[in-house]
Write a structure and sequence with these properties.
Layout (H helix, E strand, L loop, with lengths): L2 E4 L4 H13 L4 E5 L19 E5 L5 H11 L3 E4 L6 H6 L2 H22 L11 E7 L24 H20 L3 E6 L1 E3 L8 H10 L4 E4 L5 E6 H14 L5 E4 L4 E3 H15 L12 E4 L14 H7 L7 H14 L1 H9 L1 H11 L2
Parallel strand pairs: 1-2, 1-4, 2-3, 4-5, 5-6, 6-10, 7-9, 8-12
Antiparallel strand pairs: 9-11
Helix pairs in contact: 1-7, 2-4, 4-5, 6-8, 8-10
The protein binds nicotinamide-adenine-dinucleotide.
Nicotinamide-adenine-dinucleotide (NAD) binds next to helix 1, helix 4, strand 5 and strand 7.
């Protein structure tokens, strides 16, 4: 059999495809639009692997995707494709509505046509897994219990609102049409291939470039952190063993303030790449104007996936962070390609003859 992954050139999607092919031989059709966040350099280790077929396409392109589904007859579609950066959603929400809401809707329609109808499913065993975020639940007050699958949706940014809308569409396609769906809501990921606009890779890059390490507001915003490969193992578990129609929260039980995250990161950098002057990188932490509507706390209760599917993260925050820093130190050419924009020039040349 085959699976379809959308958004597989992005941060989590590329890690997922690589990990999938490490764990099984089932080929992957990787559909990605290659927006600024999509980078074929993330998939370089799969070059020449016949089990990986990359197709540049928009998830909203129903006719192209229908053709791919008929040709490859996948047993599952895993939808990672999204606009994913909260700050960008504040400055320009349009793409978030186009991809996260309309794109997911189009993909659901395409999947529904492929699957058949509940009275006459043409593809028994087929599954549509939608990858989502804990940000749909909104902000949690100090002392409140972590978000469970029963928590109310209260999204606060255009990003989280667009993801919430997509989650609701996925749910509705199950309840209305019987489409065999699964949804996962995960906390903040970090790890290899993380685009250096997000907190951890930005601070690693700035630290190594002699620049300040910017933290929003007072740095007391709390997030739960999960190493990206642990997110990938959770999704593998859900796509194979999850109950149709169910939602699974995925998290690492690692609640930390942003300031704690950056200080821990500086400690790892001090050890793995000490500064010549012997001063800690933490000396470069600065506080910058807070993001509008910045949620104060997210925390995930991952007990359902742990007890029902037996999933556990393999990494603690410290071990995952050490692996992440080491990856960035070993892959400075990747960082240079991304920060200089060179990876885009390659995409333009490859696809647009530019
Ligand atoms: P990313 O921005 O790094 O990657 C998104 C990928 O989707 C890119 O390769 C991009 O080119 C592609 N894409 C965008 N629009 C597309 C479209 N219309 N058609 C096809 N491809 C398109 O994002 P990420 O951090 O890897 O997140 C992946 C998924 O996981 C998203 O759905 C996100 O909401 C969710 N998620 C992310 C986190 C996190 O911490 N990064 C946490 C929980 C859930």
């Amino acid at each position: 059999m085959t699976i379809v992954v959308t958004g597989g050139a992005g941060f989590i999607g590329s890690n997922f495809v690589i990990e999938w092919l490490k764990h099984c031989d089932e080929p992957v059709i990787n559909i990605d639009k290659l927006t600024y966040a999509g980078n074929l350099g993330n998939l370089a280790s799969l070059k020449g692997d016949p089990r990986h077929i990359f197709v540049r396409a928009d998830i909203a392109d129903s006719s192209l995707i229908s053709g791919l589904l008929s040709e490859h007859t996948p047993r599952a579609i895993l939808n990672f494709a999204a606009e994913s950066h909260v700050d960008r959603s504040i400055h320009g929400p349009d793409d978030f509505i186009d991809t996260n809401v309309v794109g997911t809707f189009r993909l659901l329609e395409t999947a529904r046509a492929y699957w058949g109808t509940s009275s006459e499913p043409q593809r028994s065993g087929f599954r549509f897994l939608h990858v989502s975020t804990d940000e749909v639940y909104g902000s949690l007050s100090q002392g409140a219990a972590p978000f469970s699958e029963m928590s109310r949706y209260e999204p606060n940014s255009p990003y989280s609102a667009s993801k919430a809308a997509s989650d609701h569409l996925v749910r509705a396609y199950h309840h209305t049409y019987g489409l065999p769906v699964l949804t996962t809501n995960c906390s903040n990921n970090y790890g290899p291939h993380h685009f250096p606009e997000k907190l951890i890779p930005l601070c690693i890059h700035n630290a190594l470039s002699g620049k300040p390490l910017p933290i929003y507001g007072d740095g007391q915003q709390i997030r739960d952190w999960l190493y990206v490969k642990d997110h990938c193992s959770a999704i593998r578990r859900v796509v194979d063993d999850g109950l149709i129609g169910e939602t699974y929260n995925i998290g690492g039980w690692n609640e930390m303030t942003n300031l704690e995250v950056v200080k821990t990161l500086c400690g790892v950098l001090d050890e793995l790449r000490p500064r010549e002057d012997g001063i800690s990188y933490a000396e470069r932490i600065i506080f910058v104007k807070d993001r509008p509507g910045h949620d104060r706390r997210y925390a995930i209760d991952a007990s359902k996936i742990e007890s029902e599917l037996g999933w556990r993260p393999a990494e603690t925050f410290e071990t995952g962070l050490r692996k992440t820093v080491q990856w960035f130190l070993n892959n400075q050419a990747w960082v240079k390609d991304v920060t200089s924009g060179a990876y885009r020039a390659w995409v333009e040349k490859q696809y647009n003859g530019g």
